[in-house]
Automatic annotation (TrEMBL):
Location of the region described as Disordered in the Swiss-Prot/TrEMBL record: 20-44
Protein name (Swiss-Prot/TrEMBL): DUF1684 domain-containing protein
Superkingdom in the source lineage: Archaea
Organism, as annotated: Natrinema salifodinae
Taxonomic lineage: Archaea, Methanobacteriati, Methanobacteriota, Stenosarchaea group, Halobacteria
Coiled coil residues, start to end: none
InterPro entries on file: DUF1684
Length: 193
C-alpha cells in the first residue's frame, strides 16, 4: 500500500530533490566519484524518474531468524556471500491503468558481519536494461529498530539507485538474485541513459 497518507508529499518531494542535488555534486566533484576523472567535466547530473509518491510503499517484513546464505553473482564474475535476513511484501496500487498493480515481494540482505548494517535490497524490474541500468538497481533500508516479524517498513523506490559499476569498470557490483526480479515496471528512482 502507498505510504503517502502519513507524509507531507511536498516536504517529501523537496527532501528527495535535495538528496538528488547533493548526489549530483558528489558525482561531479568528489575524488571518490564513480565517474572517471576524464569524464567529470562533461557530467551534468544523473537522470531520474520524476518523483512519484505511489512508489513510496509500506512493506510488511517476514524476518528470518536463521538467515540463509545467498551467493550473489557480481559484475566481475565473482560471488559474494549475503544473508537473506528478511522478506518484504508490499502492494502497488497505481493510478496509471497501463501499469500492473498487485502484491510483490523482495528479499532483503545483509553481509556476514557483526556490525549494524542497513538492509540491502538489489532488484530488477521491467525497466531494467531499457530505462534503467541492465545490472539492476539498489536500495538500502535502515529500520529505526531491529526488525521483527510483521513489522512495517517504508520502501521508497524513488531512492533506488544505480550501482557504481554502471559508471566505471573498476567497480565490482552484486547483481540482483533472481528472487528479486520483479515482474512489474518501477519507473521511480535513478534512470540510465
Amino acid at each position: 500500500m502507498s505510504d503517502t497518507d502519513s507524509i507531507d508529499v511536498d516536504s517529501w518531494r523537496a527532501e528527495l530533490e535535495s538528496k538528488r542535488a547533493e548526489k549530483d555534486e558528489f558525482f561531479a566533484d568528489h575524488p571518490q566519484s564513480p565517474i572517471p576523472p576524464e569524464d567529470r567535466d562533461d557530467f551534468d547530473g544523473l537522470e531520474y524518474f520524476d518523483p512519484d509518491s505511489d512508489y513510496r510503499v509500506t512493506a510488511t517484513a517476514t524476518v528470518h531468524d536463521d538467515p540463509e546464505v545467498v551467493l550473489v553473482d557480481t559484475t566481475a564474475g565473482r560471488e559474494m556471500r549475503y544473508l537473506r535476513t528478511a522478506t518484504l511484501e508490499f502492494e502497488l496500487d497505481r493510478d496509471d491503468e497501463d501499469l500492473a498493480d498487485g502484491t510483490f515481494e523482495l528479499a532483503a540482505y545483509q553481509q556476514e558481519s557483526p556490525n549494524e548494517q542497513p538492509l540491502f535490497v538489489p532488484f530488477r524490474d521491467k525497466t531494467t536494461g531499457q530505462q534503467t541500468y541492465d545490472g539492476g538497481r539498489y536500495m538500502e533500508l535502515a529500520p529505526e529498530d531491529e526488525l521483527a516479524d510483521g513489522d512495517e517498513i517504508v520502501v521508497d523506490f524513488n531512492l533506488a539507485y544505480t550501482p557504481f559499476c554502471a559508471y566505471s569498470e573498476t567497480f565490482d557490483c552484486p547483481l540482483p538474485p533472481e528472487e528479486n526480479w520483479l515482474e512489474v515496471a518501477i519507473p521511480a528512482g535513478e534512470r540510465h541513459e
